Structure prediction request, 429 residues.
Amino acid sequence: MLQEFTVSNFLSFKERTTLSLVAASIKEFIDTNIFSTVRNDLLKGAVIFGANASGKSNFIYAMSTMRRLVLESFEQSSKDELDITPFLLDTATEKSPSLFEMVFVIDGFRYRYGFEVDDTQVHSEWLYEAAKSTEKLLFIRQAQDIEVGKSFSEGTKLESRTRANALFLTVVDQFNGKIAKKIMAWFNNFITISGLSHERYKAVTFTMLENKDTANNLLNFYQRLDLGFDDISISKKLFDPKELPADMPESLVKQMVTDLEGAFRIDIKTIHSKYDNDKMVDTVEFDMRSQESSGTNKLFNISGPVFDVLNDGGVLIVDELDASLHPLLTLAITRLFNSKDQNCKNAQLIFATHDTNLLNYGDYRRDQIYFVEKDNRGVSTMYSLVEYKEGGKAVRKDRSFEKDYIEGRYGAIPFIGNLTTRTKEWPEK
Prediction:
């Protein structure tokens, strides 16, 4: 369960910026949108709004980057770069490390884990654990100087085995440290996907549809959305070089034969009813990729990760969730998480979107709604609606959030001037 994520000096986020999933003391959607832990109530997710180029995707990418560094750190060589870009528009930050920190709950214990890194090395790293309110140090690191706490004996004698560009936590995991393994498993269940490059997630959906224990949930979801087909047919067969285009260059054919040897091709067909007047007389198969809409393809591709996280109680992070989707389809996905019946394991969904309909119809609490905007120096800032003050007063829960946002009351929108004036000027040019 994610409690908060913090980043600083990374891409457009210069200052320390935190997204918190700790529920504020407000009374909205208490029965559906929050769940209780030993320490506090947590939110089942958050939605991030902002203009194009405001920094929404950068914030999502910061989460993805922390996950990547944790899960892939040990596999790198001592010469590998970490692919870290600090805030480059200020001389004070361009040479400084980037900070990433997460606070999360595993088995009733709260962990605070973070690090500061640049492109070549880990500058600092820390891990704290709290059974109740007081944190105790598990380890803290400054460059290659690592101090291991008494409660983290699994990390002793491993300090010298840690490379300058590797995380100490991942080293301890490789030596089967009990706490380290739990944290690594948590990060493995922290999933980040792109709503634009969704083709790559089709295999996850296919695997879940192959499994009888998970297939029904997906098929029932498709049927409830009335996507225009009655069923789905899936087949898997080995890659056959004979199916490659005849005019493909020989060098490319050889490379693909080598790369795809032993790989499988997945064919997905949608089953449609065929009618004679009002009587159904047959069924017809459509190829999912070529004969169904881009929205249907996207919904199918990302439904695997969505239900995988719901089944496991993990965290799903999505950039551009609404791209190619009708607002009602986006709403259907988000309501899976803000639901007692569909989300019995308290999975969490954080996503960036331009779909302002969700401000009115998404049934989100004010502490779940975040805005990102960028100033004239290229610095992105983020704030929640529950934090936003208008004339020193909090935004009331009965406001029309969508209307107010479009009118610019909360910021985080593109500045395009007076549209009435613009539309009068255009015909004259």
